[in-house]
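Sample entry (299 residues):
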Amino acid sequence: MTDILYGRPPAVFDPPTGATQTSPLIPGSTALEDLAPGSVETATIYAPPGVVERRYTLALALRALKPGGRLDVMAPKDKGGSRLKKELQGFGLTFEETAKAHHRRAIAVRPETVVGLDEAVATGGPRRIAELDAWTQPGVFAWDRIDPGSALLLRRLPELSGAGADLGCGWGALARAVLVSPKVTGLRLVDLDRRAVEAAKRNIDDPRAAFDWTDARLLPDSGDLDFVVANPPFHDGGAEDRRLGQAFVRKAAGLLRPGGVLWVVANRHLPYENEINAAFKRMTPVADAGGYKVLEATR
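Predicted structure, serialized as tokens:
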């Protein structure tokens, strides 16, 4: 392996073709964490927006680069680009910085010695949160808490039974509650984020649980599940995209058997009701609090 790519930079930056993809948000990609130090010639990084996650990613890329290797990193100005200069200087790099298409871009040659890598990797890596009694990692959705939507769903979720799925499982907060029921015979945990799936595996030691690092929208419609629980994403690249949650609703309908039940939580303003009414026989509003709503739908 000589060239790596992290994420999907806009075409205007001419991302390399043939480079090994390393983003945890692209199923099947190679983990940056697994790359041997000094094994990479060039690294092109479309930097993530979170400060801790971004420094972690940059540190892993710099660790993988050989001395003299080329680092090409870019980010939208309002999602970390304005901080790139300070962060790269913190690693002891010298670089050329340019602005283009509302992004900042920096190109550096890796020196023999880079400072601060171990600290950035330790800070951004997997960790156990005592208050949650769970393993998690910066960059995962609601990585250090149970988000308010999931908390509302957990308060209203009944004892489920049979085989089901948790679409967009995160680090496993909903799944842990579902598996408390002895009537559950199996639960498929699905997430687009490799880090979330790895955390969920550490948090859930239950032979009934199965884990899938994949885009839930691409699952085949099995039509055989008894239940689905979901707190669907509604942002793509930082911008609200209501189609994501609507696609989760349609996928849940395809996974469920006739009579199967979907339990879904969403921000109050998100228009999922039309999708549910089109794909399900019956919908029941269960809760509305704190800007969130919980809906139960029967296939």
